[in-house]
């Protein structure tokens, strides 16, 4: 029972396949190279700036990252809006022309859009992992799964936590309820973590959810890679 709970989206990072590390309390984006299969637009969303907060640093990388954070061909500019804390980088892409997400000012929901420029005619898989924050910059992995999303779309409830998550996401979206997925413009409006979609063992705390969507039958080509931070407070 989650009566009195209060979820808050602390930050969202979306990239494919650029890697990121959190350094000095800020997000730093490191590109691993352009080319086919790379997400067209990478958006990093942070909580809105408060009074006295300056702009984020550039070119920082946390411990454990590799490479030198160099710019790559096709990489666009980055900037931050005063409302929504949006930072983005542009890449060449094989499947997507744009991918955008914005966290609301109250940090309780987000709006996301995705423009597919090529139909996805094979099953879409998702690698999902959830970690709980234990230290300032560390998360303990709670569970990780690799699931076939197309096998879950359109099925009824009662199929486990992943079915609940899929149904929760679909009800805010115009995504098709069956595969294949045609090219077109898709959206998720006022997407938020519902109480029923949170496992009972996830109580008060800060959690990191990593979701990598890819096509196993297309040489594991990546579609999107998103990290969402959710702060749950039980009242």
TrEMBL record:
Keywords: Signal. It holds the Pfam family DUF1091. Residues 68-83 have a biased composition (Basic residues). Residues 51-84 are annotated as: Disordered. Residues 51-67 have a biased composition (Gly residues). Transmembrane segments: none annotated. This is MD-2-related lipid-recognition domain-containing protein. The gene is Dmoj\GI13917.
């Amino acid at each position: 029972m989650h009566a009195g709970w209060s979820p808050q989206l602390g930050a969202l990072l979306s990239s494919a396949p650029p890697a990121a590390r959190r350094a000095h309390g800020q997000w730093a984006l490191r590109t691993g190279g352009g080319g086919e299969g790379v997400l067209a637009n990478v958006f990093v969303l942070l909580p809105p700036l408060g009074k006295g907060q300056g702009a984020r640093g550039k070119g920082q990388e946390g411990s454990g990252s590799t490479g030198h954070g160099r710019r790559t061909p096709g990489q666009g500019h980055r900037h931050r809006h005063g409302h929504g804390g949006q930072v983005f980088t542009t890449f060449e892409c094989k499947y997507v022309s744009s991918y955008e997400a914005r966290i609301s000012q109250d940090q309780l929901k987000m709006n996301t859009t995705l423009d597919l420029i090529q139909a996805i005619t094979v099953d879409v898989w998702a690698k999902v992992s959830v970690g709980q924050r234990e230290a300032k910059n560390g998360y303990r992995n709670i569970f990780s799964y690799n699931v076939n999303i197309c096998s879950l779309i359109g099925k009824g409830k009662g199929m486990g936590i992943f079915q609940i998550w899929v149904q929760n996401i679909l009800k805010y979206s115009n995504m098709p309820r069956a595969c294949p997925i045609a090219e077109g413009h898709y959206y998720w409006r006022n997407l938020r973590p519902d109480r029923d979609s949170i496992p009972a063992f996830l109580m008060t705390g800060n959690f990191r959810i990593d979701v990598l969507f890819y096509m196993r039958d297309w040489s594991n080509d990546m579609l999107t890679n998103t990290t969402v931070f959710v702060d749950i407070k039980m009242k």
